[in-house]
């Protein structure tokens, strides 16, 4: 091989090597592709009588106010009310009478979603709320959901319980079970129904990892978008408190705070407080979102999920595993630990969970945060809303997105909350739980936050989110200032009542709309919403003019756009003045440049060009002979005798006549696609009014719930009569061993040298055991004094010694050492 051939071979190999490196780099970028949050929908408790938190703005106002969203047991939850007893430890009872309850879970717009009255009544309210919040999230993203389009949307839902169907269950009478029993309550149908009703074609996943469910769902949604499995994704979470069973179970384990509140990181932390809510966020790859000019609220940079593995107990958090998942999320985000300015913690307010979580966060972030000199903010929305369990992660993400978007950090605790948890060495840590709101630290060059979650199942998730820099140059090109001129505004709904509500909200929004934002507002309402039967369409050159025109059109009354007489095709007539037509068409395409892209260009045939523009809007048009409407250079005709000017007598009038014609076609029922009717400066806005669902009540009443006597099944096999005296250590020791066998439900007495864990115990049965001991004796030992790996003999010995010591300490107060005897 001569030198020339060798040089050619080396050049080829070098070129191939560069191509391979470029491809590897491209694949690496795809693996870490940022994902944009483009829309959010929610129903969260407010604790007020005036309704739930049903929009991002309402949630943000709540976060910047004081107080909690907790309220008493609702009247329509008779099962929860029936099992309530303020005395902890009562078998079959719940000692909790407060939680974060939604005010309206029976209301639903079944007609809007095409669901029959019978099926709507039997649907788990979670499915109803998920349909509404998913629809709103997509509307706020400017994504119009037409079922026939089969949009490539993936649905990822975290939901851990469906308790509504319990009210149909009666083993003595199964006649209440009907075909909707399965589809109305099965967990898989929560996500499946969203995709079915809205006609999505992407992946559909319902998952249950307990309290980390919705953050696990978000992790899968991000992976699905990066892998190209879907173009859009919905990450959702849902939780309702409908059954007494889980409430009783959690109270029997002493997992819940008697006050019903999660006191995250506080000295008074004594268990978590429950809450309910539903949330959905719409996601896209960031590059796609920017290309489509969608609202980018924040950017998900990285996610990670893992499991505790062989921890001390299935339900106990594992600090090492939490450190691993936080590091993995930061690696996925390619963000350093010193860049985080906030962590939205899991923060359940439990004695065991909070210190472990703080330790994990400090282990990963502490050194870098100390080095930068700016403390890391920390908090948990659970202290305000309650712990939404399967939906807690999505509530935390929406809060974090709002914080990043606004550049502000709300207070994470109130002055009345008292001291922070003394078992956490706050003075040695670079973490702060703020007691007042403040701007995002100016010393940090980026606004980045982490969201932490761990589930009772052992699944841990961490998500890294960054604020979107709206000042950065848009990849779609430089910003173009609005040129003014006429705008087309469209509003529609399924019925007149909903249309009236929506029109009023749009008018109010117009009154607060800067003129520079008007093209974006009109573009969003035209192309980011589905057109329904009742329609209004107006044309104006200012926000005030459009608001007035909308009010006049509403007073005149909309005509229903029935499917039978909807406009499907039109004819176009043009004048003979080619020069004037050319100037008018140039002015029209300059106002809406995307309209001309892809349309068949025929400058020598204006009628064909106009038909091409109408085709871009989804309307079949054909040139026709004859003169256009009086005073117009071109006009459109349909229905035999209906005609409207398309082009006025001069270029200065464009595009007003064209838009007036489209308004008439829209109200006549034409199925127009307005995406291409987008001015150079128009973007999709995320804060416009969403569809006003018209609720009717759909509800199945709950059957009676009760407790079988005072000595319910599952109580101690040892009678309260004849309990050993607390000072009789041997007798108490024997009693404790018998009680342990009963709690563990062992067929034979356990080996005294076996540990509680090896005997089949866990944190739940340990709580049941201690609770039953406390029903009869005073105990001062903490859980840390009774580790689950102690041999049973030593465990009972420590308890017997403590019972005797506690009796001595209280002897001066009277004979109260035997409680309830």
Keywords:
821 residues; alpha/beta; eleven-stranded mixed β-sheet; 24 helices; 35% helix; disordered C terminus
Could you explain how this protein is built, in words?
This protein is of the alpha/beta class. It has 24 helices and 23 strands. The strands form six sheets. The protein has an eleven-stranded mixed sheet with strand order 6-5-7-8-1-9-16-15-10-11-13, with helices on both faces. The protein has a four-stranded mixed sheet with strand order 20-19-21-22. Helix 2 (56-63) crosses helix 14 (392-406) and helix 11 packs across helix 12 (353-372). It is elongated and about 115 Å long.
Protein structure class: alpha/beta
Coarse morphology = elongated
What value does the average pLDDT take? 88
Please provide the count of β strands.
23
- Poorly predicted residue ranges: 711-719, 815-821
Looking across the biggest beta sheet, what order are the strands in?
A: 6-5-7-8-1-9-16-15-10-11-13
Tell me the number of helical segments per DSSP (H or I, 4 or more residues long).
24
Question: How far is it from the N-terminal to the C-terminal residue, by CA?
Answer: 103 Å
| Largest pleated sheet | 11 strands, mixed
What proportion of the residues is helical, as a percent range? 25-40%
User: What amount of the residues lies in strands?
Assistant: 5-15%
Computed CA radius of gyration, to the nearest angstrom: 32 Å
Summarize the structure.
With 821 residues, this protein is α/β, with parallel strands linked by helices. The strands form six sheets. Strands 6-5-7-8-1-9-16-15-10-11-13 form an eleven-stranded mixed β-sheet, with helices on both faces. A four-stranded mixed β-sheet has the order 20-19-21-22. A two-stranded antiparallel sheet has the order 2-3.
């Amino acid at each position: 091989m001569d030198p020339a051939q060798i040089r050619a071979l080396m050049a080829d190999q070098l070129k191939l090597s560069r191509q391979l490196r470029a491809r590897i780099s491209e694949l690496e970028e795809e693996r870490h592709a940022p994902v944009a949050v483009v829309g959010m929908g929610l129903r969260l408790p407010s604790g007020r009588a005036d309704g739930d938190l049903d929009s991002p703005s309402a949630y943000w106002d709540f976060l910047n106010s004081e107080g909690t969203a907790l309220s008493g047991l609702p009247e329509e939850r008779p099962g929860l009310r029936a099992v309530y007893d303020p005395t902890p430890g009562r078998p079959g009872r719940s000692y909790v009478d407060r939680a974060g309850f939604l005010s309206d879970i029976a209301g639903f717009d079944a007609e809007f979603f095409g669901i029959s009255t019978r099926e709507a009544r039997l649907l788990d309210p979670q499915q109803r709320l998920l349909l509404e919040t998913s629809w709103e999230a997509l509307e706020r993203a400017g994504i119009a959901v037409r079922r026939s389009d089969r949009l490539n949307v993936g649905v990822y839902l975290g939901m851990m319980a469906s308790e509504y169907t319990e009210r149909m269950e009666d083993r003595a009478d199964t006649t209440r079970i009907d075909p909707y029993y399965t589809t109305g309550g099965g967990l898989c149908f929560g996500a499946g129904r969203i995709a079915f009703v809205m006609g999505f074609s992407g992946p559909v996943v319902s998952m249950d990892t307990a309290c980390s469910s919705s953050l696990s769902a978000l992790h899968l949604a991000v992976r699905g978008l990066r892998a190209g499995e879907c173009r859009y994704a919905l990450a959702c979470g849902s939780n309702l408190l409908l059954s007494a069973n889980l409430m009783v179970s959690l109270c029997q384990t002493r997992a819940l705070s008697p006050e019903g509140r999660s006191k995250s990181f506080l000295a008074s932390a004594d268990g978590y407080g429950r809450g309910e809510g539903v949330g959905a966020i719409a996601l896209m790859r960031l590059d796609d979102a920017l290309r489509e000019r969608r609202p980018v609220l924040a950017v998900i940079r990285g996610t990670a999920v893992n499991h505790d593995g062989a921890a001390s107990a299935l339900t106990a958090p594992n600090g090492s595993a939490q450190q691993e998942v936080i590091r993995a999320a930061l690696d996925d985000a390619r963000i350093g630990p010193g860049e985080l300015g906030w962590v939205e913690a899991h923060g359940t307010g439990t004695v065991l969970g909070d210190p472990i979580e703080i330790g994990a966060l400090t282990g990963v972030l502490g050194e870098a945060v100390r080095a930068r000199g700016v403390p890391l903010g920390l908090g948990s929305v659970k202290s305000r809303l309650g712990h939404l369990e399967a939906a807690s992660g999505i509530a935390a993400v929406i809060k974090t997105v709002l914080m990043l978007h606004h550049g502000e950090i709300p207070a994470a605790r109130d002055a009345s909350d008292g001291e922070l948890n003394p078992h956490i060495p706050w003075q040695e840590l670079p973490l702060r739980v703020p007691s007042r709101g403040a701007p995002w630290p100016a010393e940090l060059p980026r606004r980045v936050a982490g969201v932490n979650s761990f589930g009772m199942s052992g699944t841990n998730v961490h998500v890294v989110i960054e604020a979107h820099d709206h000042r950065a140059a848009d990849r779609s090109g430089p910003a173009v200032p609005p040129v003014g001129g006429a705008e087309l505004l469209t509003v529609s709904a399924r019925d007149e009542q909903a249309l009236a509500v929506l029109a009023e909200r749009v008018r109010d929004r117009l009154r607060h709309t800067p003129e520079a934002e008007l093209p974006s507002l009109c573009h969003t309402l035209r192309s980011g919403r589905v057109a329904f039967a009742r329609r209004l369409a107006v044309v104006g050159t200012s926000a005030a003019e459009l608001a007035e025109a909308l009010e006049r059109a509403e007073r005149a009354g909309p005509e229903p756009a029935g499917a039978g007489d909807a406009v499907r095709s039109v004819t176009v007539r043009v004048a003979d003045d080619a020069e004037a037509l050319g100037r008018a068409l140039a002015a029209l395409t300059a106002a809406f440049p995307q309209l001309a892209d892809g349309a068949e260009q025929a400058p020598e045939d204006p009628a064909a060009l106009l038909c091409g523009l109408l085709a871009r809007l989804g309307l079949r048009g054909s040139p026709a002979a004859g003169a256009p409407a009086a005073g117009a250079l071109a006009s459109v005709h349909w229905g035999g005798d209906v005609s409207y000017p398309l082009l006025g007598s001069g270029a200065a009038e464009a595009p007003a006549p064209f838009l007036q014609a489209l308004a008439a076609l829209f109200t006549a029922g034409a199925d127009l696609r307005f995406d291409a009717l987008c001015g150079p400066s128009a973007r999709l806005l995320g804060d416009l009014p969403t569809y006003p669902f018209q609720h009717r009540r759909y509800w199945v009443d709950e059957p009676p719930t009760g407790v079988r006597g005072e000595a319910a099944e599952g109580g101690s096999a040892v009678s309260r009569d004849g309990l050993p005296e607390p000072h009789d250590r041997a007798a108490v020791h024997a009693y404790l061993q018998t009680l342990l066998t009963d709690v563990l439900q062992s067929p034979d007495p356990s080996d005294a040298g076996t540990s509680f864990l090896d005997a089949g115990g866990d944190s739940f049965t340990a709580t049941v055991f201690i609770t039953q001991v406390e029903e009869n004796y005073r105990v001062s030992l903490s859980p840390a004094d009774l580790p689950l790996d102690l041999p049973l003999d030593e465990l009972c010995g420590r308890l017997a010694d403590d019972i005797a010591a506690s009796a001595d300490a209280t002897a001066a107060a009277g004979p109260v050492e035997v409680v309830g005897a």
